[in-house]
């Protein structure tokens, strides 16, 4: 038996992009149905819990920053609460054979490294501001910037090994890639889209400033609640067909196992790589298809390591550490608002995620705990539990935080990222011009796709 659903618009994917899109369409009086493969909404935002069943640990996206206006507005509108990321005390930095505690934004590095880093950041931010966010391929120097990797730029422009390592950690922490994986143009676009290196890396006044009370998945759940039974979970879309009829009329047909949804338009709000794995009838134009052959996701394993209490706070530490030793290079205090239990968040990114993703979980977790013990002392060696997620292994995501573009892709295929193909429209964090790759970008991308459809019919 095949169930059939008729709507004006069919949305594929109930992540923040798909949900925001559906809500905007429903508010405009359109019949909409959202088809979601997983048995939950939210996609890359997902509340896990510790074994107490109560303490939420966000397995995917979690922070929002003050310049991310759309997500902040939605938080207020949906009546959600946020709280500041814990930041009282001193941060840790390990670079080469140096290790130090410090307050504020400037780590106590040798003056020549700090000067080198400052110059590199200034230069990089200045280049980033020259990238038109709606059309990175149209930057005056797009051709040159899209012919080299971010790593090449680092080697040519950053003199000291300490500053080079910190720029590489920037790529890992923000893009979840090695700087050799993406083009300079992509790194510049992403940086500009997020408001610059400081805005992307800072906790106070930056992209890591605030967390959700109850976890970021609440944002998706609240949006879905408003859509009610128009959101269908457990529906894995496999094929999208579109037909035009004389007189400008036409239809899309979205097929899943045992389910068909028909409408006038479809919005594909799944990560670009997965959009490329759907079957299209008629086949997509070459440029669009070749784009999705070239738009891989990054690699992240997000590890929550839980303790009975946040003991590092008593040692005067924020829980935030940056280290070039790996495999863990970035940590945060991710304890709940009450501060009990204590949770340290450790990221495995880029090459380290690729390598450790293939290890048995106990071995991988042992390495993570060992890294935390080196940074935060012996008590960190005895966690209550570890909760982790390798996003590359997630069938309906296949990598994170988002997609990255290698040399040649923005300039040759960029225009196909958002351009509708007939009645097929594209949404998702990767298609956003502002805060691309972030929850904020996902929401605006969905609303942009909805506006596209409302303007067309
Ligand atoms: C570890 C991690 C940390 C992050 N940290 C942050 C952060 O702190 N702050 C921030 O702003 N952002 C962060 N992000 C990024 C943010 O979570 C994403 O940009 C955003 O959630 C993407 O939303 P989306 O709707 O575009 O895509 P998704 O959330 O990926 O939604 C796509 C949906 O489509 C579904 N789907 C896939 N294939 C099919 C199919 N065939 N049929 C039907 N449905 C399908 C998926 O199940 C999914 O629900 C992080 C992401 C990760 C993974």
What does this structure look like?
Among the domains are: 146 residues, FAD/NAD(P)-binding domain; 127 residues, Polyamine Oxidase, Chain A, domain 2 (Alpha-Beta Complex), CATH 3.90.660.10. Helix 2 crosses helix 16. By secondary structure, the protein is of the alpha/beta class. 53% of the residues are buried. It is globular and about 70 Å long. The model has no long low-confidence stretch (mean pLDDT 97). The chain has a seven-stranded mixed beta sheet, with helices on both faces. It has a five-stranded mixed beta sheet with strand order 1-13-12-11-15, with no helix packed on it. Bound molecules: flavin-adenine dinucleotide (FAD). The site of flavin-adenine dinucleotide has 40 residues, from helix 1, strand 3, strand 16 and helix 16.
What would a concise description of this structure say?
The chain has 457 residues and is α/β, with parallel strands linked by helices. The chain contains 16 helices and 21 strands.
């Amino acid at each position: 038996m095949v169930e059939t659903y008729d709507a004006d618009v069919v949305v594929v994917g109930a992540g923040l992009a798909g949900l925001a899109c559906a809500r905007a369409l429903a508010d405009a009086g359109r019949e909409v149905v959202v088809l979601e493969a997983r048995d939950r909404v939210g996609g890359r935002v997902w509340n896990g819990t510790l074994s107490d069943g109560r303490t939420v640990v966000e397995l995917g996206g979690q922070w929002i920053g003050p310049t991310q206006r759309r997500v902040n507005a939605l938080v207020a509108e949906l009546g959600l609460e946020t709280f500041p990321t814990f930041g009282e005390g001193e941060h840790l930095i390990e670079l080469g054979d140096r290790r130090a505690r410090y307050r504020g934004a400037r780590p106590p590095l040798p003056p020549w490294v700090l000067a080198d880093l400052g110059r590199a950041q200034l230069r990089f931010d200045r280049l980033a501001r020259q990238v038109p966010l709606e059309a990175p391929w149209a930057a005056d120097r797009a051709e040159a910037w899209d012919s080299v990797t971010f790593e090449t730029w680092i080697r040519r422009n950053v003199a000291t090994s300490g500053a080079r390592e910190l720029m590489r950690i920037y790529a890992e922490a923000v893009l979840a890639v090695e700087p050799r994986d993406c083009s300079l143009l992509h790194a510049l676009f992403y940086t500009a889209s997020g408001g610059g290196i400081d805005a992307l890396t800072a906790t106070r006044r930056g992209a890591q400033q605030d967390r959700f009370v109850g976890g970021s998945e609440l944002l998706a759940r609240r949006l879905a609640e408003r859509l009610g039974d128009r959101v269908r979970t457990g529906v894995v879309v496999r094929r999208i067909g579109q037909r035009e009829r004389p007189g400008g009329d036409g239809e899309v047909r979205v097929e899943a196992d045992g389910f068909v949804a028909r409408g006038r338009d479809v919005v594909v709000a799944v990560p670009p790589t997965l959009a490329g794995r759907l079957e299209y009838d008629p086949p997509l134009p070459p440029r669009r298809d070749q784009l999705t052959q070239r738009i891989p996701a990054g690699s992240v394993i997000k590890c929550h390591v839980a303790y009975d209490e946040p003991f590092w706070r008593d040692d005067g530490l924020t829980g935030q550490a940056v280290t070039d030793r790996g495999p863990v290079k970035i940590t945060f205090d991710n304890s709940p608002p009450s501060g009990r239990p204590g949770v340290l968040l450790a990221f495995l990114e880029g090459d380290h995620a690729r390598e450790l993703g293939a290890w048995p979980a106990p071995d991988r977790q042992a390495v993570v705990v060992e890294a935390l013990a080196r940074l935060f002392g012996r008590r960190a060696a005895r966690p209550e539990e570890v909760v982790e997620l390798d996003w590359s292994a997630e069938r309906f995501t296949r990598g994170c935080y988002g997609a990255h573009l290698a040399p040649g892709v923005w300039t040759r295929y960029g225009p196909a990222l958002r351009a509708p193909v007939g009645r097929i429209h594209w949404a998702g964090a990767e298609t956003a011009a502002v805060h691309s790759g972030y929850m904020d970008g996902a929401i605006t991308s969905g609303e942009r796709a909805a506006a596209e459809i409302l303007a067309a019919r």
